[in-house]
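Format notes (please read before filing issues)

Several people have asked whether sequences and structure tokens are stored in separate files. They are not. Every record keeps both together, in the order shown below: the sequence lines, then the token lines. Line labels are part of the format and must not be stripped during preprocessing.
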Amino acid sequence: MGPGEAWEDNEEKHPTYLRSLYSIVAVGSVFLLIGLFTPSTKEMVAIYMIPKIVNNEQVQKLPDNAMKFLNGKFEEWINDMAGKKK
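Then the structure lines:
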């Protein structure tokens, strides 16, 4: 006897509406988990671009002022993302 057969045999203990509710809760939980672990657009850009920027030789030769500007922008974006998460 498999799990599906146990549901079918015991109609008194688990009526049809209750089985439907269990299914809706299970599907909703799956969608909730997918939504929680999917990165936003800004996070995805950071995941993709930061390693490329850090490993690029041309970027490593940029003047100090440009690097300070970029660091400031990254800090601003990170703070912006942190504010949205709260």
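For reference, the curators noted about this record: The chain has a mean pLDDT of 81. The chain is about 80% helix and 0% strand.
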